[in-house]
Specification:
Number of helices: 13
Bound molecules: S-adenosylmethionine
CATH topology: Rossmann fold
Structural class: alpha/beta
CATH superfamily: Vaccinia Virus protein VP39
Number of domains: 1
Strand order of the largest sheet: 3-2-1-4-5-12-6
Distance between the termini: 41 Å
Order of helices and strands: HHHHHEHEHEEHEHHEEHHHEEEEE
Helix content: 40-55%
Largest sheet: 7 strands, mixed
CATH architecture: 3-Layer(aba) Sandwich
CATH class: Alpha Beta
Length: 338
């Protein structure tokens, strides 16, 4: 499925048919939301392959395998933010599980965090434009679909929440308005779009510009969001109400000692962002150097003027240390009422 142009992928009609059959067998409630004609038609077009797959296989120049390793090693690292996002999904009046389309779903982290935290009443469909990531999601027992953010393959009015999180900046600026329109189309009345990213000028943008772009094997030159930009997408797509707000979304690691928890954060960031050049230059202490860099960048000024920075806390009942790098995300919530 990897095309000759390296990170460009192809995903054809036969691959789509295979995935749809699997979805029908394992998750009929999610399969019922897919428009098979839309899916097959898109797969025919996608055979040309114009998507640059940064999260593809190593052999194709991607950094998907180290990304997946990071999430598998520390499922709790971003669980606080994910839990908050899922708490915003409206419960259904018919008491059936609310269908959440995780548009940038990767290897199914959101679904796996929901399971690990015992969040009930949700049925998450993991979607991604990268066939490699969708394959990893299936391997982790997460029902999954290859789909582009700006071309949802779902039926009109079929889902309760469209979650676009942990990578919205990867969606090209010219595709973002269409993403919001598509989200509005597929939501039922009462459904929500949750569009999550990081603000222009935030520590996260500095991290991407100063660390991920120069040191990762794929680079990372993407535009982040402004509040006004997000609000514009909601209103132009027709959402009847909504807001743009901020939320805490830290990186967390826990271990027997404070030092080990800190190093675990470093390992997580090294793998999550595929910081191959740091590993190459500092093979003996790449994790240490990475977490030290992160500590200088992830420092947030609170509204009262105080500084929120790296912290380590001891839990005497569990006898563990938890290290936290604070991070603030921006979140646009669009509500479809009619
Ligand atoms: C940073 S990963 C997030 C994965 C997962 N949600 C997590 O938090 O670990 C971003 C994912 O978005 C996918 N992606 C990027 N651009 C996309 C697009 N236009 N449409 C659909 N998926 C896209 C990538 O392939 C990647 O798997």
């Amino acid at each position: 499925m990897t095309g000759p142009a390296g990170r460009h992928v192809t995903f054809g009609e036969a691959d789509m048919t295979e995935h749809l059959n699997r979805l029908g067998r394992t998750a009929p409630d999610l399969y019922a939301c897919v428009d098979p004609a839309r899916a097959r038609a898109w797969a025919r077009l996608a055979e040309a392959g114009d998507f640059k797959d940064d999260f593809g296989a190593d052999g194709a120049g991607g950094r998907g395998s180290s990304y997946i390793r990071a999430q598998g090693r520390n499922l709790a690292a971003r669980a606080q933010g994910i839990h908050h996002l899922l708490s915003l999904v409206p419960a259904r009046t018919d008491r059936r599980p609310a269908v959440v389309v995780d548009v940038l779903g990767g290897d199914g982290l959101v679904r796996r965090v929901a399971d690990a935290r015992g969040l009930t009443g949700l049925s998450v469909l993991t979607c991604d434009a990268s066939p490699y990531m969708v394959g990893a999601a299936w391997a982790a027992h997460c029902p999954a679909l290859v789909q582009r953010a700006d071309r949802l393959l779902l039926r009109d009015g079929s889902v309760d929440a469209v979650l676009v999180a942990y990578g919205s900046h990867h969606i090209a600026a010219e595709d973002r308005a269409e993403l919001a329109h598509e989200a509005y189309r597929v939501l039922r009345p009462g459904g929500v779009l949750l569009l999550h990213d990081f603000l222009v000028g935030s520590p996260m943008e500095t991290w991407f510009q100063d660390v991920v772009d120069p040191y990762s094997r794929t680079g990372h030159a993407f535009d982040h969001f402004s509040r006004e930009e997000m609000w514009g997408y909601l209103t132009k797509a027709g959402f009847e109400s909504g807001e743009v707000t901020e939320m805490a979304d830290p990186y967390v690691a826990t271990a027997a000692t404070a030092g080990e928890a800190e190093l675990e954060l470093g390992r997580y960031l090294l793998d999550m962002y595929g910081l191959a050049a740091i590993k190459r230059r500092h093979p003996a202490d790449a994790a240490r150097r990475t977490v030290e860099l992160a500590k200088t960048i992830f420092r947030d000024r609170r509204a009262d003027g105080s500084l929120e920075a790296f912290s380590a806390a001891y839990d005497p009942s569990a006898r563990t240390w938890t290290c936290t790098l604070p991070r603030t995300a921006v979140l646009a919530i669009g509500r479809k009422t009619s």
